[in-house]
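To illustrate this point, we now present one chain and its tokenised fold:
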Amino acid sequence: MVRLVPAMYVFGDSTLDVGNNNYLPGPNVPRANTPLNGVDFPGGARATGRFSNGYHVADFIAMRLGLKESPPAYLSLAPRPTALLLSALATGVSYASAGAGILDSTGT
């Protein structure tokens, strides 16, 4: 498939999180780092940091746009500024984080 866009940037909550929460400190941070959360994802039953057992909506949109899958988690790249910059330019970055909310009542 032809790549229709140069990069994709994802904002959202647990439905689009690709592992950002695994890099957040604290014992009460929701994490999806169990093998069941990757059982249907390519590569077999390994923890993916996703709150799903396989692909999610952003992956399908990315594939329709000619990308392999949704972009990597921002926090997985943040400690390495060069990798972050290259990824942001080449494929994009995912800022989605489980528990994200815009209202005080969400507790996040």
Q: What stands out?
A: The beta strands are 8-10, 92-94. The mean pLDDT is 86. The longest strand covers residues 8-10. Residues 14 and 26 are 17 Å apart (CA to CA).
